[in-house]
């Protein structure tokens, strides 16, 4: 079964029912998943080089997920095999004062892929209907207005040649506990820990509801959402790689036509 | 011998005398160089995480070199092991119309590292004293004015906390012939080939002289130039990794002090 069918968000769902430990791909072993991921990434790298050479399509991968869900790790996995020449990452943290002076799509729009590029958003404009909603910085009415704005924005991107893949890395609450505890207990990881991680964990249910609502409100065939189970790191990487590969394969990429005048050229 | 001593540009030199096939590091085998590079990159990754956690230092790696000298490959090697969270790349191609409307340092300045970041420049402001000089878009007087501007700019960066490492990837003219020919002959690489590659190859000597002059004019202890022999790709990657590692080691990085209040914290 294609990963794009396996993980595509259904019309109705709750994250509580989605098993974050599910491992439908691979053979269930970490080593097996890692090996599969490497193979898939090598194929992505070939296709991505073609994407870059052809300079026709644009690919945008949006990564969202709770704290510790593995967004950074997922990005790292991609770079382990894909050439950074055509792969770019934009990480969106809390908006700076400058950024907050603009509309919330402004800073995001600046980083969308150009022709031939593949761009990964590590967090995205979705933060503006997630954390802002849970912290009640915006009310329900404003949130729905933003869903519509986001739908419009993404439709425009799709209509102008951008292939969009949106992934929510779904971890269980117990897995998050272990990962946060590891951050606290490991002196080399403690710098990653922030008091807000605990505050947000306390609002776990509210965040899950905000994710469900935002995902359902913005899922579209031209901007599909995938719920990737992320309790297993190797399987998470495999799932994302497979989603990307299937997406690139659907583009029917080709090498630019060879230049006949070069056929006999000898460099001196 | 430290790589920083091995490759640091001497007070007087010509590129003709610098052996592009020299392999002073490693055991002379490709597999050995690859393995060494992986080890060094793993250590860089640890230090880079510390750099990121500490948010005190900024590191800038400038990569320059003739066409096919391996700038893209060198960047790729870094990403194979170093987390992209704190590693950023800025590639500078021919200036766009927008960019050309500003002074030549404008677009470069926007991409310098912030605290905790390591940034790689794939080409840089040095193009503005290299190709522009060879194509006679600027005369000698303007070129010398720019050397001084670049010195001032880099001194400012260094004085405000940026550790600068400048690398020229030095390939031989015959190695470039083979690599250009491979681009032409391989349908998967032909898209990389551009007629200007040949035009520039015809001006090989002029480019080498422009490099020598620019390097000598802008080498400084706070912004050192290293000439890395680049006919061997694995050795090139090893040399760059070693230069970076030694540079990071010299910063005496430390993990941020642990937060005592977290010592007994248990996540629920």
UniProtKB/TrEMBL annotation, chains A, B:
Does the record's keyword annotation contain Secreted? no
Question: Which GO terms fall under molecular function for this chain's record?
Answer: polyphosphate kinase activity
So which domain of life are we looking at? Bacteria
Going by the UniProt record, its keywords in alphabetical order are: Kinase, Transferase
A GO BP entry: polyphosphate metabolic process
UniProt region (Disordered), positions on chain:
1-34
* Keyword Ubl conjugation attached: no
Q: Which family does it belong to?
A: Belongs to the polyphosphate kinase 2 (PPK2) family. Class I subfamily.
Q: Where is the Polyphosphate kinase-2-related domain?
A: 34-250
Identify the InterPro entries for this entry.
P-loop_NTPase, Polyphosphate_phosphotransfera, PPK2-rel_1, PPK2-related
What species is this protein from? Pseudoduganella rivuli
Q: Where is the composition biased (Basic and acidic residues)?
A: 1-15
Name recorded for this polypeptide = Polyphosphate kinase 2 family protein
